[in-house]
Amino acid sequence: xxxxxxxxxxxxxxxxxxxxxxxxxxxxxxxxxxxxxxxxxxxxxxxxxxxxxxxxxxxxxxxxxxxxxxxxxxxxxxxxxxxxxxxxxxxxxxxxxxxxxxxxxxxxxxxxxxxxxxxxxxxxxxxxxxxxxxxxxxxxxxxxxxxxxxxxxxxxxxxxxxxxxxxxxxxxxxxxxxxxxxxxxxxxxxxxxxxxxxxxxxxxxxxxxxxxxxxxxxxxxxxxxxxxxxxxxxxxxxxxxxxxxxxxxxxxxxxxxx
Amino acid sequence: xxxxxxxxxxxxxxxxxxxxxxxxxxxxxxxxxxxxxxxxxxxxxxxxxxxxxxxxxxxxxxxxxxxxxxxxxxxxxxxxxxxxxxxxxxxxxxxxxxxxxxxxxxxxxxxxxxxxxxxxxxxxxxxxxxxxxxxxxxxxxxxxxxxxxxxxxxxxxxxxxxxxxxxxxxxxxxxxxxxxxxxxxxxxxxxxxxxxxxxxxxxxxxxxxxxxxxxxxxxxxxxxxxxxxxxxxxxxxxxxxxxxxxxxxxxxxxxxxxxxxxxxxxxxxxxxxxxxxxxxxxxxxxxxxxxxxxxxxxxxxxxxxxxxxxxxxxxxxxxxxxxxxxxxxxxxxxxxxx
Lengths: 258, 338
Known about the structure:
The structure holds two protein chains of two kinds. Chain A contains nine helices and twelve strands. In chain A, the strands form three sheets. Chain A has a six-stranded mixed beta sheet with strand order 6-7-8-3-9-10, sandwiched between helices. Chain A has helices spanning about 40-50, 85-90, 95-100, 105-120, 135-145, 165-180, 190-195, 215-220, 220-225; strands at about 1-10, 15-25, 30-35, 55-60, 60-65, 70-75, 150-155, 185-190, 200-205, 210-215, 230-235, 240-245. By secondary structure, chain A is α/β, with parallel strands linked by helices. By secondary structure, chain B is mostly helical. The longest helix of chain B has about 35 residues, at about 55-90. The two termini of chain B are about 25 Å apart. The chains are: A alpha/beta, B mainly alpha.
């Protein structure tokens, strides 16, 4: 269980996160949604323990600021692509904390092999990461985080640079990871896609949590539109799934407005 | 590679080969010159065995060639290792050891020594160059605003400080045209000043710096990831970056003050080692130090034998040999990755 109590973060004189209270059960997927500058990435960085904060962030009762040993993996939005590093070397870095830097156990090399296979990267391990496509790079980032065997995985916009096909394959992979008991917290711009995968949606605006709840109830909630200044509308597809689009385009849809 | 396992990231055999290359380079460096010395006699002399070199040859080896080869090796190791570290820290394959204003600062310090130093130039020049280099990097951090500045801010601050120091150096040179030639010669790099005193003080600082860098080399790999990923692996990227830059600056400033500005080693050698081993990890740092040392010892051998008895500036050799070889490795690697 992850508990955030009265969490606030200040950058000089600006309060970028204000009194955030969240309770995230183990093995669930929570998706942070909100406009740019809402504080989503700052919240992830703070949950990683990188940012000084007031209030508390507890993982199973252990405060993050005092527990550097917590195994939390992070998948960044934009990778820092190292000069001429191979896929295998990059993914192997994920084992460094567990093995001790500079050591690599046979077990670790097996885990890396296994995760490369799981992310369909086997056969590409000698390829240089700076020659990969966006979709392949995203899978490498996830594989590097996975070999950490984390308890919690934080993903910052895991699908923002991908086409729809790759978005779905990455999100399916994250869903499989969640099924193994890892707690997932991701940020995403696309609420529809977020609600399809995460069981919980947390809408953020100006450093505050505006709406928080089970995905389907958040997506149907009347407050959702006001959170986006009435610039969105929610529609229902034939299979009953909701879809959220910009209000300007809403008139063209055949399916009824909710 | 075993089935269901990926290959090892680093192998000790690579480091051992690099050490062997340095040993061979050193033997060639002390053996060849206007007077060639017998390798067997050199080894016997160095090990204190009977039937070693005698008289002038003994002095030539121990008082002239050996300190020069050792200084060359120290400077080469310092520049190559610092270059590799800067490339990791700044996540920029084109970063070189002179990036944060060390070269321009040292150049300014050396010019001040040459234009105002009176008779005893060699005594003052290394100290002034060292202080100039270190002060320039300190100014870069000051301009960047804080110790934990992000890499791109530091880079830009380094460019600004470097330009200022170069402008000031040019002004001093124009005011004192007699200094143009010695400053120019220093800028091209020289190991002719080598003696055991220089080796001792340069060795002291370079060993400290290299010890620190090789100690942190494994953790330096975390800087190739984003700061968040590094943090998730228990590494504070800002602290490691600061230690790495401080140690690399100490190594570079010492190397520059002992031998002038020797270009290209800091870029060519790290890429050469990474290209040949097909590995980007900083666990290659010790091998990069060995190969950098060997490269400079061989370059110096060329500098003093090609136009013998005249000497070529060593910087000319490093660029002349380094550039085509570098392009060859780059091409081979690009072909390999396609």
